[in-house]
Design a protein that fits this description.
single chain, elongated, mainly alpha, 3 helical TM bundles of succinate and fumarate reductases, iron
Length: 148
């Protein structure tokens, strides 16, 4: 005799209660996407429209911009939001196209390592950038450096 289960019987166990990380990942993607639109268009406007436009972007332009803590934090926030947004998107793709197991864990671990390394290096570049390094020949320094 064959028994057919009731159609209302769940195929899998009910989801566990507590923190729902997928929900928070989904919310982060929406919030960071909106913030990134503002940050990226602000970045593009300042770099391309204000002043002399794209022909003025050089080492001195970046050095002068990053001399202001406001622009340092603007660029770091854009870096962090974009990298975490992209890594979370890639994590979603890994979840969609791989089965749970060793391969999925390795791919997610590689994503995590890559994101952390890029976040640390990018943040260090922005906050430790010195356009006027001590001991450099004056002819190699930008015009705004005291020794130039």
């Amino acid at each position: 005799m064959t028994v057919i289960e009731s159609p209302r019987t769940p195929a899998r166990p009910a989801p566990r209660r507590g923190r729902n990380l997928e929900k928070w990942g989904w919310i982060y993607m929406r919030a960071s996407g909106v913030a990134l639109v503002v940050l990226v268009f602000g970045h593009l406007f300042v770099n391309l429209m204000v002043g002399e436009g794209v022909k003025a972007i050089d080492f001195g332009f970046v050095g002068g911009k990053w001399a202001d803590p406001f622009w340092q934090w603007w660029d770091v926030l854009m870096l962090w939001l974009a990298l975490i947004h992209g890594a979370n998107g890639m994590r979603t793709i890994v979840n969609d196209y791989t089965s749970p197991g060793a391969v999925q864990r390795i791919l997610k671990g590689a994503l995590l390592v890559a994101a952390v390394v890029l976040l640390v290096l990018g943040t260090l570049v922005v906050f430790t950038f010195d356009p006027c390094p001590a001991g450099s020949p004056a002819e190699l320094l930008p015009s705004f450096c005291p020794a130039a």
